[in-house]
């Protein structure tokens, strides 16, 4: 009969620790394993695919248990943390052999998704940001840190939208909440699907004081204090590499919110979520991990200040003009390891010998990098040169102290160079030359005593000894020789010198390993004192790397240096979408101009589906972003103003925040743009209004155009399939029609992809449907319906027709559907919106099907009835097409 068991002292200890970390997997060290118990074991064994066993298997209440070997623990931690869990590592704090009592155990680190530094999240060109929020009077202190690099930034934000935006842009996996964060804010953040951690108080730690030193705003000081406290509490060690927090203002950069970043595919392909096919993919020719990370930051934060942009452009130009030097730099950079993370590991205390060799190798390339830049002999490089401090003392220290191929573990020896420490050299000598020494000592003793058969031997009882035959004992001098054993023919002695050598030889190996570890930690501490210099160097190398990457891409892609102008005009000749062009090949891509003089605000773009409207719009946005990053741009020539924000409403973007409908997202994005855009912004509106019924959509589109034209006055590209809107050009002086050309050849549609002046003459929707492979009968039916509609004047108004502005009809542009009705009431004949479709007499409609009323059977009458009742106004063109297709199928059915 199984017995219910009383908890053992060890399980008592386990529970005590576990209670302190209820939301983490507790990895409890037991000898060579880390064990999990209870629920941790059940869940952990599933996630990590471990065998679930139990303690006290025969009891009524066996304890579920599973474990991982200590040397492989990092992999398991990575898997759990990557999946959003926390892991508390509980170590044995004393040697079990040296204590009779319960071994002392303590949690030495809490690894969380935002603090993982070695796992998958720590991929070379990725930052892993931990964020924090503090709330006060409806305002937010926001901060983020990367524990592996020591980067720490903070900002004051005023809305939850800004918070969401920063967090999504940073792709944070974990946010630390100060107690002041309200439930309302939390509710809005819940949709983020990241780990929420809590830090209840600010710790009195030197890191907290240090990191907040340069801050002025109390909000920022407080949030950074919470963030650093959390780091300190979870990591349980000094964090010497965490930099002083730098305050930033989101308004300091070209504003690209997370939706814009996604719509424009800056870092992630919106279909695959991968890098391929993105601006990052195009621009990334960086050679170092630091450069890769910095490039990502620059892409999402282009600059606003012309002098800063020009400073970058100047260096790109120099590197572009000097091919050989640039190649030399690339060669050197490719041999520079991740200095930033290496510095982080030094400070964090988890650096090993091989890391230090990587650090030294990296530092050794800095003088050559400087030399190449100096040869370019250009004053524009001076400040960069000054930032490239080779931190020679660290390189020298590592060179003299660390062996070229150290072992992986820092406790197994084989770390320290010969000649660095005398004591260690003696141990190593003892290990290597023990026998040699003894032979030398034997020879010395023989000579000193004149006893030629004196010999040195070894036994387990008292170790090394000097053996002298009985007949020679009298020759031994007094004092130095201590008798240990008497044999029949000989006596055995020890001397202090012999015992010293013995201790050396026997203890040499462990002593050497211990001493090596101690020396290693001393060296690590010395390097730690130079962390700031290493971090500054890493930043300079990263900058140089990104700029050389710009030069490479600009040269390969034949990009041009853009000019910035104060008056708000854009003039781009022969521009292209760099990513689309790269994918499809240079020969096939048709370059296009963008001409928007000072007084032109809106380009209204029409043209068939698939002709290249979206590509043209994105092309401009990417050109602006690249220009303001300091890169050259894909065009023959480019003149542009500096933009402050880019807003996009492009495609049916899937919504990251919640399950809002496509139309809702469309309206939210439009709203965001209309509310926040300034005359210095760039707006891209792609087919706005298509997510709702035709009339609603068209009315909204027109109202939005007028609002932008009259109130926002930002440079705007607006593509539409509502050809009726092209007539707006007559009323809106700052709007111009352009279209993407296409021609019909032998019944087939040929896209020209060329932007041309004026509106498109037709939509070619049916042709595009044909390209998409819709059934032939449906297409011919659609063509017939189209012809009928065109005859009845339901399609395009004559180009140049007088169009009333909705503002002439209704003051309210926000209530667009009201506006629609008023349009119809006030000026029905000239409205750009199709007139209310009156239900036509049944017999006329029937002619579509070649039938007369008298011959109608029951099924046909029912279909006629349905057509009569169909609310066209509430249907999208696609709905209409589907309905017609169904009616036709039913009519064609035999019965
Ligand atoms: N300038 C160009 N030169 C060559 N090919 C182009 C060009 N612009 C676009 N294309 C090609 O046409 C395809 C469709 O372009 P895009 O999506 O911009 O069309 P669209 O007019 O916005 O279509 P829709 O109205 O259906 O959204 C692109 O994927 C690309 O292959």
TrEMBL record:
Q: Where is the DNA mismatch repair proteins mutS family domain?
A: 681-697
Keyword list, A-Z: ATP-binding, DNA damage, DNA repair, DNA-binding, Nucleotide-binding
State the CDD domains in the record. ABC_MutS1
One Pfam family, short name: MutS_IV
Q: Which SUPFAM superfamilies match?
A: DNA repair protein MutS, domain I (SSF55271), DNA repair protein MutS, domain II (SSF53150), DNA repair protein MutS, domain III (SSF48334), P-loop containing nucleoside triphosphate hydrolases (SSF52540)
User: Which domain of life does this protein belong to?
Assistant: Bacteria
PROSITE patterns, per the entry: DNA_MISMATCH_REPAIR_2 (PS00486)
Q: Which SMART domains match?
A: MUTSac, MUTSd
Comp. bias intervals (Polar residues)? 807-818
UniProt-annotated binding residues for ATP: 607-614
Record region (Disordered): 795-840
Q: Which InterPro entries match?
A: DNA_mismatch_repair_MutS, DNA_mismatch_repair_MutS-lik_N, DNA_mismatch_repair_MutS/MSH, DNA_mismatch_repair_MutS_C, DNA_mismatch_repair_MutS_clamp, DNA_mismatch_repair_MutS_core, DNA_mismatch_repair_MutS_N, DNA_mismatch_repair_MutS_sf
**To which protein family does this belong?**
Belongs to the DNA mismatch repair MutS family.
Its function? This protein is involved in the repair of mismatches in DNA. It is possible that it carries out the mismatch recognition step. This protein has a weak ATPase activity.
Check the record and name the PANTHER family matching this protein. Answer: DNA MISMATCH REPAIR PROTEIN MSH1, MITOCHONDRIAL, DNA MISMATCH REPAIR PROTEIN MUTS FAMILY MEMBER
Question: What NCBIfam families does the record point to?
Answer: mutS1 (TIGR01070), PRK05399.1 (NF003810)
State the protein's name: DNA mismatch repair protein MutS
Q: Which organism is it from?
A: Ligilactobacillus pabuli
Lineage, opening ranks: Bacteria, Bacillati, Bacillota, Bacilli, Lactobacillales
């Amino acid at each position: 009969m199984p017995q219910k068991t009383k908890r053992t002292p060890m399980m008592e200890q386990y529970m005590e620790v576990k209670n302190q970390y209820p939301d983490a997997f507790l990895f409890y060290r037991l000898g060579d394993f880390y064990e999990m118990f209870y629920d941790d074991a059940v869940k952990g064994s599933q996630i990590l695919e471990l065998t679930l066993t139990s303690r006290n298997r025969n009891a009524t209440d066996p304890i579920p248990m599973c474990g991982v070997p200590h040397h492989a623990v990092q992999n398991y931690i990575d898997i759990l943390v990557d999946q959003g869990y926390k892991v508390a590592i509980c170590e044995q704090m004393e040697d079990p052999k040296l204590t009779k009592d319960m071994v002392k155990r303590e949690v030495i680190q809490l690894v969380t998704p935002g603090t993982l530094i070695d796992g998958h999240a720590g991929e070379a060109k990725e930052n892993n940001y931990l964020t924090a929020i503090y709330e006060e009077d409806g305002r937010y202190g926001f901060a983020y840190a990367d524990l592996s690099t020591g980067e720490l930034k903070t900002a004051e934000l005023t809305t939850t939208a800004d918070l969401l935006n920063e967090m999504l842009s940073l792709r944070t996996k974990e946010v630390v909440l100060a107690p002041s964060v309200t439930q309302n804010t939390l509710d809005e953040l819940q949709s983020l699907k990241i780990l929420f951690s809590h830090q209840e108080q600010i710790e009195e730690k030197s890191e907290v004081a240090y990191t907040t030193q340069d801050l002025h705003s109390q909000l920022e000081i407080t949030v950074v204090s919470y963030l650093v406290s959390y780091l300190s509490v979870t990591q349980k060690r000094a964090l010497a590499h965490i930099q002083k927090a730098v305050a930033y203002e989101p308004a300091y950069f070209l504003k690209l919110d997370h939706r814009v970043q996604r719509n424009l595919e800056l870092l992630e392909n919106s279909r695959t979520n991968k890098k391929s096919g993105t601006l990052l993919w195009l621009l990334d020719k960086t050679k170092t991990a630091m450069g890769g990370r910095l490039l990502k930051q620059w892409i999402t934060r282009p600059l606003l200040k012309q002098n800063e942009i020009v400073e970058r452009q100047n260096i790109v130009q120099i590197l572009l003009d000097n091919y050989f030097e640039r190649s030399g730099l690339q060669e050197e950079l490719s041999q520079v390891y991740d200095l930033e993370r290496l510095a982080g590991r030094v400070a964090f205390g988890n650096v090993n010998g091989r890391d230090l060799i990587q650090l030294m190798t990296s530092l050794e390339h800095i003088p050559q990098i400087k030399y190449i830049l100096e040869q370019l002999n250009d004053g524009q490089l001076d400040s960069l040169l000054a930032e490239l401090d080779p931190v020679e003392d660290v390189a020298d220290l590592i060179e003299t102290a660390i062996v070229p191929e150290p072992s992986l573990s820092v406790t197994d020896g084989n770390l320290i160079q010969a000649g660095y420490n005398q004591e260690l050299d003696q141990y190593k000598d003892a290990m290597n030359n023990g026998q040699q020494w003894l032979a030398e000592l034997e020879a010395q003793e023989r000579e000193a005593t004149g006893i030629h058969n004196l010999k040195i031997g070894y036994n387990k009882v008292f170790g090394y000894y000097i053996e002298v035959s009985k007949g020679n004992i009298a020759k031994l001098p007094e004092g130095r020789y201590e008798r240990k054993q008497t044999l029949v023919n000989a006596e055995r002695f020890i001397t202090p010198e012999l015992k010293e050598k013995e201790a050396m030889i026997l203890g040499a190996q462990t002593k050497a390993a211990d001493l090596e570890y101690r020396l290693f930690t001393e060296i690590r501490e010395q390097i730690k004192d130079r962390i700031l210099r290493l971090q500054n160097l890493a930043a300079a190398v990263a900058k140089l790397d990104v700029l050389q990457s710009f030069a490479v891409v600009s040269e390969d892609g034949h990009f041009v240096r853009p000019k910035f102008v104060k008056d708000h005009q854009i003039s781009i000749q022969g521009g292209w979408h760099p990513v689309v062009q790269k994918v499809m090949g240079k020969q096939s891509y048709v370059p296009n101009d963008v001409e928007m003089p000072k007084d032109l605000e809106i380009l209204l773009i029409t043209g068939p589906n698939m002709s290249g409207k979206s590509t043209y719009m994105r092309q401009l946005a990417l050109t602006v972003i690249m220009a303001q990053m300091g890169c050259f741009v894909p065009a023959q020539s480019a003149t542009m103003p500096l933009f402050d924000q880019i807003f996009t409403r492009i495609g049916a973007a899937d919504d990251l925040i919640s399950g809002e409908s496509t139309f809702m997202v469309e309206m939210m994005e439009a709203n965001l743009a209309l509310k926040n855009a300034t005359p210095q912004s760039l707006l891209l509106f792609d087919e706005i209004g298509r997510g709702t019924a035709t009339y609603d959509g068209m009315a909204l589109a027109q109202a939005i155009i007028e609002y932008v034209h009259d109130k926002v006055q930002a440079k705007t590209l607006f593509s539409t399939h509502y050809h009726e809107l092209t007539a707006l050009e007559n009323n809106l002086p700052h709007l111009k029609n352009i279209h993407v050309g296409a021609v019909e050849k032998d019944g087939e549609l040929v896209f020209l992809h060329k932007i041309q002046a004026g509106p498109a003459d037709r939509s070619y929707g049916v042709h595009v449907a044909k390209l998409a492979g819709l059934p032939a009968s449906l297409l011919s039916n659609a063509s017939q319906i189209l012809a009928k509609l065109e005859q009845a004047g339901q399609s395009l108004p004559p180009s140049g027709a007088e169009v009333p502005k909705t503002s002439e009809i209704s003051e309210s542009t926000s209530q667009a559907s009201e506006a629609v009705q008023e349009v119809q009431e006030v000026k029905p004949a000239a409205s750009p919106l199709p007139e209310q479709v009156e239900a036509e007499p049944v017999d006329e409609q029937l002619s579509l099907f070649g039938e007369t009323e008298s011959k109608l059977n029951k099924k046909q009458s029912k279909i006629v009835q349905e057509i009569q009742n169909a609310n066209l106004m509430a249907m999208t063109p696609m709905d209409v097409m589907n309905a017609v297709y169904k009616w036709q199928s039913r009519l064609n059915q035999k019965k």
